[in-house]
Every structure is written in C-alpha cells, then in structure tokens.
Design brief:
237 residues; alpha+beta; Alpha-Beta Plaits; four-stranded antiparallel sheet; two-stranded antiparallel ribbon; 9 helices; 6 strands; elongated
Length: 237
C-alpha cells in the first residue's frame, strides 16, 4: 500500500501540530468576528486558516520548494472568497473589513502550515487587535466634524424636473456648476415615473465648499420646470 510507503511519523506529527495551531488561531480570530455578528464568523475564519495551512503543508511535503507556488495560489484563492463577502448597497460598500480579516486568517494558516507557529500567533494577535483595539479610534475619528473643503469625496448635484423641461434643466445644471468653478465629469438622466425625471451631475472636483453648492442648488430651484435641487457627497475610494 502506498500509504505505508509514504507515511512518515515525524512529518505526520509536524503536520498535525501545524494544522491544529492553524485551527486554534483561526478560531480565535473567528470568535471575535462572531461576537461582532459579522457574515464571516468563527467557522469561516477557522476553516480558512485550516485550509491555507493544509495546502501550504501539502505543498511542502510533496514538493519541497513547491510551497512557494502554493502560497501564491492560496492568496489568489482567498481573493475570490473575500470578494464574496463584499456587498454594495447603493453608494455604500459593506464587508471590506470581513474580506480583509479572511485574507489575514489565510496568512495565519499559511504561516502555521510552514511551521512558523510563533509568527502565526503574533499575526493572530495583531489581527484581533486591529479589529478590537482600533475600533475606539475609528469611532473617535468618525465623530470629528467633517470639513467639506478639506475632505476628498465624490460630489453629485441632483435636480428633479418635468420631462418637458429636462433638457433645459440639464443645461442650467451644467452652466450653474461651471459658473461656480465646479467642472462636471458626467450628467445622467433617470426617469421617475411619467411626470418627473432626475438629472444628476457628477463633479470632477474631490473637494467642495458646502455653501457654494447650497447656492448652486438654490439657483437651480428657481429654474422653470425644476421641482427640487440638492447635492450630496460620497466618500472617495
């Protein structure tokens, strides 16, 4: 039997220790994610770390230096898994932190698979610290009032008009923005039922003065056929 020929007790013990370490460390990362009620929780992170360790250990066992190639495949494979955790809801994107945590869990497993257990434990501690200790700092930064002139964002000016006045409203929108020294990157028109349309201009600028955009919106609302005008900013990627 080939199993008897390939079985190496010392190598088996090393594999068992590495896989067990990856499983435990992945579980620690996953426990924090499970507590936060994230989509990729305890089991997902434990299995990602375990799988990465298993592939790296297998590459080391069967090919020696082949583990380097396996590492590259693990990284790309986790990229697809992380993409599945990212969701887009309107202009908001969720799951980036979950995907990054899965990526780090794979790194923990890969380190454990290479028998770098101390390094894997250190990485685990840093991942958990990143997801816990940095949270108060994130919350503190988010509570700082935003200076629209200093921040970088994607700005859009939106107006609602009647279909008959849509073309004129579109021209007025572009003229008003360019008159305020805000060049327009693109203008889109979307029907809102049979009676109204939305005309949205996306600005080239990544910073703007709120009062100036308020003045543009007020000017546009005085345009014949325009029912409403407003503007919004979305954090730049």
């Amino acid at each position: 039997m080939r199993f008897i020929q390939t079985f190496d007790p010392a190598a088996f013990v090393n594999t068992a220790v590495c896989l067990l370490a990856a499983f435990i460390l992945g579980t620690l990362i996953g426990a924090e994610r499970q507590y936060r009620q994230r989509s990729a929780g305890l089991r997902t992170n434990a299995l990602v770390a375990l799988g990465a360790a298993a592939f790296v250990d297998l590459g080391e066992r069967v090919g020696g230096s082949g583990s380097t190639q396996v590492l590259a495949y693990v990284v790309s494979g986790i990229g697809f898994l992380g993409a599945g955790a990212i969701m887009k809801e309107g202009v908001n994107i969720r799951g980036l932190n979950t995907a990054a945590t899965l990526w780090c869990s794979a790194a923990v497993g890969a380190a454990a698979g290479e028998a770098l257990l101390v390094e894997a434990a250190l990485l685990t501690g840093l991942v958990i610290a990143g997801n816990t200790l940095l949270r108060p700092l994130v919350n503190a930064i988010n509570r700082i009032p935003i200076d629209a002139a200093a921040s970088e964002a994607n700005y859009q000016v939106r107006l609602t008009a009647t279909p008959e006045q849509a073309a004129e409203a579109r021209e007025a929108l572009v003229e008003a923005l360019e008159g305020a020294n805000y060049p327009v990157a693109e203008v889109t028109t979307t029907e809102r039922g049979d009676e109204l349309v939305d005309v949205v201009a996306t600005l080239v600028a990544t910073s703007a003065v709120a009062d100036e955009l308020d003045a543009v919106a007020a000017k546009l609302e005085a345009t014949p056929g325009v029912e409403h005008a407003t503007w919004e900013s979305v954090a730049a990627g």
